[in-house]
Amino acid sequence: MSNLLNLVSFGALALAPIAAGAPSDYPTKQCVQLEVTVPVVATNHHFGQPPIDSNITAINWTVNTTTWNYKLPSNPPIVPIDRTFKVHAQLCVPSTKNAKSNILQIATQGRGFDKRYFDIRVQPETYSYLDAAIKRGYPVLTYDRIGLGESEKPDPYDVVQLPAEVEILAGLTKLAKAGKLISSSKVLSNSSPAVKDFVPSKIVQVGHSYGSFIIAPMIVKYGSLADGALLTGFFPNPRLGTVDVSHYDHAYVHDIDPVRWAAYGPGYFILANTLVLQKLFLHKPGFEPALLTYMSEILQPEAVGEYPSGDSLPLPDLHATEFTGPVQISAGAFDFANCKGDCRGQYNATFVENLFPKASNITGYLQPDAGHAMHFSTTAPIGYKAQLDYLNDHGL
Ligand SMILES: *[C@@H]1O[C@H](CO)[C@@H](O)[C@H](O)[C@H]1NC(C)=O
Ligand SMILES: *[C@@H]1O[C@H](CO)[C@@H](O)[C@H](O)[C@H]1NC(C)=O
Ligand SMILES: *[C@@H]1O[C@H](CO)[C@@H](O)[C@H](O)[C@H]1NC(C)=O
Ligand SMILES: *[C@@H]1O[C@H](CO)[C@@H](O)[C@H](O)[C@H]1NC(C)=O
Ligand SMILES: *[C@@H]1O[C@H](CO)[C@@H](O)[C@H](O)[C@H]1NC(C)=O
């Protein structure tokens, strides 16, 4: 049986102090930047999507793939992937040894963001998940998914797809579990020598949105690569999928800024402006305008291949039979992208129980006042506390 926190209690929670103790009691973070070479074997598909090489073709694609009678190709040709990818990652560890020092969190962000989603630098004491997790003593690995940030940007049609991204996360997790992350990477920063390879005793997979959609099938395939999961921006409900890409405004990267996006080519597009960012990610009152500006500054392109490959994932037919840890499912209470604007009372516990049949605990949680990008909401600290308390309460 799952449990959805009663929203009535949120008023009281919001007023409660976030954490006790003087700031000096908390560990600080020491980080290293890495270029990890991840070997990947995966089965992608050729979906034959309309080309995207201008604003006009971006919208042509949008209209084509959201037309009411559009169907994903039923037997798309297989594109075998057997190669390595260069993935940019950051490992941060707390400055002091503590009860959580050996529980590694690996965080996977959603579409439109790189790893900075988890480390917002506007008022980081409020908004940075990374800093919140470090304060509670957890080491954290963040990385840029392929096709954005400082990771490599391969063919956005046939290569940047969900199956390859599932294997990249599995590959990173295996390296981290074996204590070989740093030793098998090119170390890009000569920051703190305190950050050394260590063999974590436990792994927690943390996702936002599309990142959570990568983690779920990863756990289905490799149950031993997660001892627990925080799936944020992921909230099975009757409206899931109704906010399709016709609600987005995707512009072609070079028609937006050919200099800034010079490393990207056809097949990469990006959310066009702050209007669509607010619509998809934020909820009023629950965000500060400065955070919308910051979001547009760190916004990343998206690879078109993630859409048909993500949409073909048969989540209701998947069962993570080897995963026995706790999993918290969460969203902003007013998540437009997931719940068409109001998630309250909409949680489909059956869906999640089917997906994680052996989980030790499944809990649904709604972050008050937040939209889809929960971390950009003024209630982010309440959400982080709920997430980190959840892990602690379940032995992680
Ligand atoms: C799952 O854990 C939460 C606390 O994190 C608890 O309230 C809930 O009762 C647990 N669910 C079950 C079925 O034990
Ligand atoms: C969408 O694209 C597919 C493949 O190019 C095409 O067969 C279909 O007719 C298009 N749909 C519309 C409504 O144009
Ligand atoms: C527009 O999309 C259609 C599919 O709907 C495709 O057949 C056509 O080639 C596209 N046109 C351009 C200019 O990309
Ligand atoms: C493409 O669309 C974006 C968003 O509306 C706009 O800022 C840009 O000027 C357009 N570029 C071209 C070349 O049309
Ligand atoms: C909840 O999920 C289950 C399993 O996927 C599905 O059969 C059911 O129709 C869903 N319920 C609602 C109300 O969407």
From TrEMBL:
InterPro entries: AB_hydrolase_1, AB_hydrolase_fold. The keyword Signal applies. Pfam families: Abhydrolase_6. It comes from Apodospora peruviana. The keyword NAD does not apply. Keywords: Signal. Residues 1-21 form the signal peptide. This is AB hydrolase-1 domain-containing protein. Residues 112-303 form the AB hydrolase-1 domain.
